[in-house]
Amino acid sequence: MDGSSFPESERRVKSGPHVEKKLNAAFVRKAGPGRHADGGGLYLKVDPSGARRWILRTVVRGRRRDFGLGSANLVSLAEAREKAFELRRIARSGGNPKVRTREDEGKATTFEELARQVHERKFKDNANNGKHIAQWLRTLETYAFPTLGNLAVSEIHQDDIETVLDPIWTSKPETARRVLQRISAVFDFACGRGYRATGNPASGMLGSMRPQRQKPEHFAALDYHDLPDLMEKLNGSNVVGALALRFTILTALRSGSVRFAEWEHFDDTLTEWTIPGSLMKSGEEFVVPITTHARDILMVVREHRTKSSPLVFPSPSNPRKAISENTMRKLLQSHVQGVTVHGMRAAFRTWAREDAMAPDDVAEMVLAHAIGSKTVQAYNRAKLVHERRKLLEKWGMWVMGEAYKYNDLADLDREAGRRAIKMYADE
């Protein structure tokens, strides 16, 4: 990196001569956030998180450059001064200190420091799926950092990683695989930067670990026959959590899309909802037909809308923020223990197949699932809005316990099907 990477506030250094060897070991351990000069272009950089590292600023072939000399947890003040002196000597002789630092930096960078760098770079411009972004680092903090965190990235071997994975490999198989995947991503980055000469120690480990026999757990779903009773209980409350949960069930969408829905995403008549790609798992815009019962909920919510928030279901404590992801889950489990909000989508899919006998492509499109191969998706421009509206209207009748309406509509569908079969047979 070069000098322009420092914020302006950090590039301002007090005028006057730079006294050599201004720092001491005690100060290095306790220094607060900021950039602290030792002299001769050597600085201790302390992040707000408390992470501290050495940086040398010097001139290389007429241009000012900054070179990382490693973590202050691994490189002592004396070692940092020695490295700085050597790199300044290389620069003065016309050489390139970067060649030397790439060889040494892996020995002076801890796994935790590099993992946090990878996490920041990986998700820097990605505001979607904040839960996944947080979990990416949290799994490493929980399982990997206690063992690997303070080790230099150049000195970690496969047996070190096995020490991390072995206790959870069969007891938490999905978590263990994710931890391995994220550890591997950190070492891919280390190898790309030249911090390791022996390659990625996590490569090939998935095939060499013992079998994981535990089947993956699925989201707990409520039997669709029990949904009318649940909705009857929820209808007795107009708190934002209950309204959001009812709307989520009626639209069969993921809770994240509902939690962050804004009024500007709906048309004026509240009959169509255009969800921006940033709120969809697929990353693509999705149009949702709003049915009778879902619209009724929006009408109730709109009566209590506040100008301070663009959100349809804002947090009661802070209208500028969406309701917590736990709000609907806790409310649902207060009525039916062990069931998840995501499981409502599974209930819809089972109902669509077993009771409504809906075409698979229509049911899958309601759930915003990709249909067919990528080639098929590229040529399938049909959004099936009319078909989805019809299916969701029937779903609304079912979950709201309107059996008389639902059965009449189902009879009409069956009669239309019989007529179509007879016409085909007569041709």
Task: Describe the overall structure.
The structure is a single chain. With 427 residues, this protein is of the alpha+beta class. The chain has 3 domains: 3-107, Double Stranded RNA Binding Domain (2-Layer Sandwich); 113-208, DNA polymerase, domain 1; 224-426, hpI Integrase, Chain A (Orthogonal Bundle), CATH 1.10.443. The protein contains 19 helices and 6 strands. The protein has helices at residues 8-11, 25-30, 77-92, 97-105, 111-122, 130-148, 158-165, 173-192, 205-208, 227-234, 240-251, 255-259, 292-303, 325-335, 343-354, 360-366, 374-379, 385-399, 403-426, and strands spanning 34-39, 42-46, 52-60, 63-71, 272-275, 286-289. A 4-stranded antiparallel sheet has the order 1-2-3-4. A hairpin with a 2-residue loop joins β3 (52-60) and β4. α6 crosses α7 (158-165) and α11 (240-251) crosses α14. GO terms for molecular function: DNA binding. Residues 8-20 have a biased composition (Basic and acidic residues).
